[in-house]
Specification:
Layout (H helix, E strand, L loop, with lengths): L2 H13 L4 E6 L2 E6 L9 E5 L5 E2 L22 E4 L4 E4 L15 E2 L4 E7 L2 E6 L4 E6 L6 E2 L4 E6 L1
């Protein structure tokens, strides 16, 4: 990612009401947070494929209202939201969901969409398995790191 592109993204986040943005493409990853104390500098980090990074100390994670339900079976793994946005279980209103409870998924299968900054981001399965639980509700906001699904390998 070019420095000019990164600067544009930072300016967009600064002007918006977004508290945090995380974006990943190929092996590049960017995370921008605005929820810092008054007088403290903003926190920006970027990691390129060569593992070059600019980072500042991380602030405490935002407090969640209710704890996420735990897996009944400890083998189930959580699929976490990679950023803040709106969770959609299907590609369009009235369309079938990408996955249903009990469905078998392969690595790379689309599980849902998270809309962030007017961009629809497909969230893919990171490992094969069976969808045990869908923890997010269709059309509801999700936070960075919030569990979306439980998948049993």
């Amino acid at each position: 990612m070019l420095l000019k592109e990164l600067e544009k993204i930072i300016k967009i986040v600064e002007k918006s009401e977004i508290a945090e943005l995380e974006w990943e493409k190929n092996k590049e990853r960017i995370r921008i947070r605005k929820d810092f104390p008054a007088g403290a500098p903003a926190q920006f980090s970027y990691s390129a494929p060569a593992q070059v990074a600019m980072a500042a100390p991380q602030a405490a994670a935002p407090k969640q209202d209710a704890p996420a339900p735990k897996a009944e079976n400890t083998r189930a793994k959580e699929v976490l939201s990679p950023f803040v946005g709106v969770f959609y279980a299907s590609p369009a209103p009235g369309s079938p969901k990408y996955v249903e409870m009990g469905a078998r998924v392969k690595k790379g299968d689309v599980l849902c969409i998270i809309e962030a900054m007017k961009i629809m981001n497909e969230i893919e399965a990171e490992w094969p398995g069976k969808v045990v639980t869908m923890l997010a509700k269709d059309g509801q906001p999700v936070q960075y790191g919030q569990p979306l699904f439980l998948i049993e390998p």
